[in-house]
Specification:
By secondary structure, this protein is mainly α. The protein starts with a helix and ends in a 27-residue tail after the last strand. Bound molecules: heme C. Heme C binds next to helix 6 and helix 8.
Length: 205
């Protein structure tokens, strides 16, 4: 794949077809090691810029894994989340997550047997389709509100997650979400997904 990419970028920059032929020949002749050697060497540093600080890296390092790794300190309750939601989310997602101009966030029906593939009327939402509660934290913190992503604090995000999970009847109305409690929430769709352990080749189309 890499040598294909190298060949394609070569198409863009090579002046002559013979250079392309040469690149192909050398890539196939060198086999696996062609990947690295076909790439041009890094240019000399220009002497501009500086190393990113730990604080700058931390700001960008916001991914949360399914098992909760990456969740920041903080906490939030369902009641707190209801307030933030009314102010920052309801206009697009509906007063109680039922959906308005945009996606609904609440759905409890997954059909008799998780029939999403055959029943187009089943809405896919947090409550009936998402396998991990932690993804709700990652996504909300990263991407919402739609027009002001990156503006929520961790406490606001934990409270919103608590509120949305409560609307979906997954946690109790007095639940508090934090880095310890959130990964323990078992989503109804949790066992409907499997890890994709295919290794490439013919099985991957
Ligand atoms: C301006 C409108 C708008 C506001 C305000 C907004 N959202 Fe969204 N939200 C969207 C849109 C549009 C999408 C779909 C984005 C996409 O598919 O790329 C979305 C998707 C989502 C999803 C994923 C839904 C799914 O199942 O795919 C969640 C969860 C969510 N928003 C939570 C929130 C929360 C929490 C807030 C308040 C902090 C919020 N949103 C505020 C427009 C909005």
């Amino acid at each position: 794949m890499r040598s294909l990419i190298a060949a394609i970028s070569c198409i863009a920059i090579c002046a002559s077809a013979s250079a392309l032929a040469q690149a192909r020949a050398s890539a196939s002749a060198q086999g696996a090691t062609a990947d690295k050697s076909a790439r041009p060497a890094n240019p000399a540093p220009l002497g501009i810029g500086r190393a990113a600080t730990a604080e700058e890296i931390n700001k960008l390092d916001i991914d949360v894994m399914p098992d909760g790794r990456g969740l920041p300190p903080g906490r939030g309750s369902v009641a707190e989340g209801a307030k933030v939601y009314a102010e920052k989310c309801a206009s697009c997602h509906g007063k109680s997550g039922e959906g308005a101009t945009f996606e609904r966030l609440v759905a409890t029906d997954a059909g008799k047997n998780f029939d999403f593939a055959t029943n187009a009327k089943l809405p896919r939402a947090v409550g009936n389709y998402w396998p991990y509660a932690t993804t709700l934290y990652d996504y909300t913190y990263r991407a919402m509100p739609f027009m002001q992503p990156g503006t929520l604090t961790p406490n606001e995000t934990y409270s919103l997650v608590a509120y949305i999970l409560a609307l979906n009847k997954i946690v109790a109305d007095d639940a508090v979400m934090d880095a310890a409690t959130l990964p323990k929430v078992k989503m109804p769709a949790r066992d409907r997904f499997v890890i994709d352990n295919r290794r490439g080749g013919k099985v991957v189309k």
